[in-house]
Amino acid sequence: MKKALFTIALAFFAVTGFAQQALFSRNVVKSPEINADNTVTFRLHAPKAITVQLTGDCVDGVVSMKEDSLGVWSYTTAKLEPELYSYSFIVNGMRIPDPSNIYQNRDVATWTNIFIVSAQKGDKGDLYSVNKVPHGNLSKVWYDSPTLKLTRRMTVYTPAGYETGKNYPVLYLLHGAGGDENAWSELGRAAQILDNLIATGKAKPMIVVMTNGNPNTAAAPGEWDFGMYQPSMGGGGVQMPQAAASMDESFMDVVNFIEKNYKVAKNKANRAICGLSMGGGHSFAISKRFPTTFDYVGLFSAAISVGQWGDRTPLLDRMNTNAEYNKEMAALFGAKPKLYWIAIGKTDFLYQQNADLRKWLDSKGYPYTYRETDGGHIWRNWRIYLSEFAQMIFK
User: Fold this and answer.
1) What per-residue confidence (pLDDT) applies to 15?
2) Which of 185, 240, 281, 304 is the most buried if burial means most Cβ atoms within 10 Å?
């Protein structure tokens, strides 16, 4: 009996020991490795693979990796500019994450690995990094939305020293289609950007409210009672609930909650709103629906809508002929906002919409500031826009 128990014990320790060894030695290669010259080397131990490729915004399209005698596939990029980059491997035609890199982001329903390249203090890579500066706090906050008839969740950034301060200005920061209240804090690096800008005196200490812009949902996928559905560009999965109202119709529920529960300055000069893509469209709609509420408006690659949804009349024609739109915009600019900021990439698929908006604003003599960058409808641009917009507001 004792011999049998001893044999079982040996087998148990052999199995658990192997499991622990596998746990600690799973990542047998270093990847990614940021080299001294800011080239980056990727590696994957896959001795039975037939083909291994690398894809992401750190390379041009899809590139092939080379295998060595130990079954390690590798690829080294050209020198990379300071930035946050994302990538994945493609093994035998199947896209997989890098098992040696624990850092990943979810964009809608796609996970990719990330890494940051920085060459010196103050560059984009440094701005997106966690540095030795005072840190603000990120909170997941539930609030009641009477307009939407839901209890909903948002992410709120409070700056370092919030507890001892008072009368903070508030930036309402809105995500794009397929995103949720996690998008700007995870994909957008909002907390790191604000921490670093505030610490260096480039931005005023502010509260940043990152809402969920899908009015038919309460929170990010898996974070509310609808269950663990597959996210989509529409903000939810199949058979999602019907929204009780639009995002712009319900937005003052957010503002009212923040101004009741946080130490904020409750006036137009201390409120800003901005957003990307769908969130840019929401910022456009919210600011004109509530023309005396925000002194700073930022449209990042904005998806602009005027009139009825699905109307195929050219946007500029709708702007010229829609009486309600003209009345709302006249009220907005009659309230003299301190900044109306439009930013977009040269190859963005929404470029023409934003060009039409600028042409219409010019025809009316309404003042705005325009920022054009290289690239298209990508987070790389939106992080830049947030970094710049945050430095221009509440001055």
Assistant:
1) 37
2) 281
Give pLDDT tens digits for 324-353. Answer: 999 999 999 999 999 999 999 999 999 999
Please tell me the predicted confidence (pLDDT) of residue 309: 76
Task: Write phi, then psi, for 363 (nearest 5 degrees).
Answer: -65, -25
pLDDT digits (tens, 9 = 90+) for 37-82: 999 999 999 999 999 999 999 999 999 999 999 999 999 999 999 9
